[in-house]
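As the next step, I selected for study one protein, both as residues and as discrete backbone shape codes, as given directly below:
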Amino acid sequence: SLTLILPPFSSIVSHFYHHITSDPQSQLIFFLLFAVSFLLFVGAFEICCGHRSRRCGRNGCRGLKRSMEFDLQLQGEELLRSGDRSKSVRDVNELPWKGGSEENPDYECLRAELRKMAPPNGRAVLLFCLRCGCPISKLEGWGPKRGRRNKK
């Protein structure tokens, strides 16, 4: 049996308690050991599960916990006319196409639904996002072209 080889656990604890309470130097060592192990635990927890671990490394990443996988943006004529002055238009224009190119036939059904939602002379953009909330690719559908009215 194990009790023949090792002393009982209660005698180990009582010996340890007696040793710590009798010597002030061992009290200091025990306290420092506890403080260092607590700090190491907090540091490891922050690295593994903290706010920064959810970030993807992109500039401006917010590191959200439970972000949506998709985001739909409806961009009207006025916003698109402003062009590169608008940050939202510029960010969408810089994203790569889902499926590699604009002409990928796999996403044509989805693009047709986006065309139905898009405002006249505008576009509907479906953004595919990471878990942190950063967009990684896009699908866009342009709305119907409405001719400009000429003033007479």
Observations:
- The chain has a mean pLDDT of 82.
- The longest strand covers residues 135-142.
